[in-house]
TrEMBL record:
Keywords (A to Z) from UniProt: Oxidoreductase
GO molecular function: oxidoreductase activity, acting on the aldehyde or oxo group of donors, NAD or NADP as acceptor
Family: Belongs to the aldehyde dehydrogenase family.
The keyword Oxidoreductase is assigned to this record: yes
PANTHER family, per the entry: SUCCINATE-SEMIALDEHYDE DEHYDROGENASE, MITOCHONDRIAL
Gene3D superfamilies recorded: Aldehyde Dehydrogenase, Chain A, domain 1, Aldehyde Dehydrogenase, Chain A, domain 2
PROSITE patterns found in the cross-reference section: ALDEHYDE_DEHYDR_CYS
Protein name stated in the entry: NAD-dependent succinate-semialdehyde dehydrogenase
Highest taxon of source: Bacteria
Residue ranges constituting the Aldehyde dehydrogenase domain according to the UniProt record: 29-479
């Protein structure tokens, strides 16, 4: 790790001992490797089940003071955390590139995005948390008090290693909860850097603990602990189902932000050039490793050939390389992701698809998969029903609105759908018919701290961001007072 001023250099150097040990070696150190080069970036000490329990003990104790602290004081600490994150933006972006591989401009954008949740919830902490109710009883007055639930367990993935933490933690902390955080094993350094900045911001001991360790062990401790009252998870639908089951015995409040399988639909009434440039963003941001990534492209037959040609040209122009060199596309996170790309391309081709661009691992290195465009992909191809989570774009033609609605909705997922058309009635009908938590019309970027992010069906439960992001971290206490 080279560029880390503001004290982070020293802090990470401490975590970089035993450089020659293997992954999860000895008494528990995790080797963090640069996906672009395979080089060792740092070694992180792993916690065990006792560490996970200790973190809950501390969070449970700290809850008594944090939950009763004046909201203004909590907001002040959150604002300080926000400012420290922004001051350390370049360091955090470089840490992220080193362990996650994304292009540096995207990493910088993620730090802005991550910090925006902290600022938003620092302000939300000050909003009224008592609501009046019009009484239906004589001589009684009624109120709803929103109260923090207790300790919250936050479990995050590697694709947005900072933003997925702040989106959860800032909401939980603003609500008055304390939290224990388990980041992905691929990206512990971003999480530890955020934790270090949180400590400097002045969160009291135990209010926010970040625990790196074997996921099943650490999170298993937390799901089994009745003191953990809320669990917020972002990751795959498969692990989400497991945590849902594990949380049942103690009836935890749940937020599950799970997988997506976004359709990207282009009608003849679309601005085609705009649809193409938005399609490139929707597919290839974060090198395709985005739950909002467009997973399947449905293009009306009247503009199909034109779209395929323009999209293929745009994709050929994308640059690929190490995140630090700021290409359009970086490496994928691990070998499993590469294997999935290979399988999905081979399967689609075997079922009739044509490769217009890419299709292979790139000579740049074993974790670089070429941006790929497949045309004439049939619905039987696995990529039309499985998450791709990589840089492969399958395109298929359609003829009617009803047909494309049925095909777009024929999925267990329901996170986001993209529609391109300039016909207002068509847009209205499509927006109504698509069974997704978010519908983006003629654009790709939809997220932000003030909007409730989340999906329908097996893309998850609950919402993050916005006022709604506080709901899982609060219980409603109904108070009915009779003055007699
Ligand atoms: P993942 O489900 O494998 O892992 C996510 C987190 O769960 C990690 O921290 C991991 O350590 C932990 N985990 C893994 N196995 C566990 C177990 N047995 N018990 C407890 N915890 C466990 O997902 P991933 O590969 O890290 O991330 C990619 C997935 O995340 C994709 O499916 C993507 O769509 C989804 N995602 C969703 C959103 C959203 O907001 N809806 C955002 C980003 C990513």
């Amino acid at each position: 790790m080279t560029h880390m001023p503001n004290g982070l250099t020293a802090w990470l150097t401490d975590a970089s001992l035993l450089r020659d040990a293997g992954d999860f070696a000895g008494a528990g150190r995790l080797a963090v490797r640069d996906p672009a080069t395979g080089e060792l970036v740092a070694q992180v000490s792993l916690s065990d089940a006792k560490g996970a329990r200790d973190a809950v003990d501390a969070a449970h104790t700290a809850f008594a003071t944090w939950s009763t602290m004046l909201p203004q004081k909590r907001a002040e600490i959150l604002h300080r955390w926000h400012d420290l994150i922004m001051d350390a933006k370049e360091d955090l972006a470089r840490i992220m590139v080193a362990e996650q591989g994304k292009p540096i401009s995207e990493a910088r954008g993620e730090i802005d995005y991550a910090a925006s949740f902290v600022q938003f919830y620092a302000e939300e902490a000050l909003r009224p948390n008592i609501e009046g109710v019009t009484s239906h009883l004589d001589d009684a007055e009624m109120e709803l008090w929103r109260e923090p639930v207790g300790v919250a367990a936050l479990i995050t993935p590697w694709n947005f290693p900072c933003a997925m933490i702040t989106r959860k933690a800032a909401a939980a902390l603003a609500a008055g909860c304390t939290c224990v955080i388990h980041p992905s094993a691929e990206t512990p350094l971003s999480a530890l850097a955020l934790a270090e900045l949180a400590a400097r911001a002045g969160f009291p001991e135990g209010v926010m603990s970040t625990i790196v360790g074997d996921a099943a062990t650490i999170v298993g401790e937390w799901t089994g602990d009745a003191r953990v009252r809320a669990l917020s998870f972002t990751g795959s639908t498969e692990v989400g189902r497991l945590l849902y089951r594990q949380s049942a015995d103690t009836i935890k409040r749940l937020v599950l932000e799970l997988g997506g399988h976004a359709p990207f639909i282009v009608f003849p009434s679309a601005d085609l050039d705009r649809a193409v440039s938005e399609a490139v963003k929707a597919k290839f941001a974060t090198s395709g490793q985005d739950c909002l990534g467009a997973n399947r492209f449905y293009v009306h037959r009247d503009v199909y050939d034109q779209f395929c040609e323009k999209f293929a040209d745009a994709v050929k122009a994308l640059t690929m390389g190490k995140g630090a060199d700021d290409p359009d596309i970086g490496p994928l996170i691990h070998e499993r992701a590469i294997a999935k790309q290979k399988q999905q391309v081979a399967d689609a081709v075997a079922k009739g698809a044509k490769i217009l661009v890419g299709g292979n691992v790139d000579p740049l290195g074993p974790l670089f998969f070429q941006p790929t465009v497949l045309a004439d992909v049939t619905d039987e191809a696995a990529i039309m029903s499985e998450e791709n989570f990589g840089p492969v774009a399958p395109i298929t033609p359609f003829d009617t609105e009803d047909e494309v609605i049925a095909r777009a909705n024929a999925t267990e997922y329901g996170l986001v759908a993209y529609v391109h058309s300039l016909d207002p009635r068509r847009i209205y009908r499509m927006t109504r018919a698509l069974q997704f938590g978010m519908v983006a019309v003629n654009r790709t970027k939809v997220t932000g701290a003030p909007i409730p992010f989340g999906g329908t069906k097996q893309s998850g439960l609950g919402r993050e961001g916005a006022r709604q992001g506080l709901e899982a971290f609060t219980d409603i206490k109904y108070v009915c007072r009779d003055w007699g």
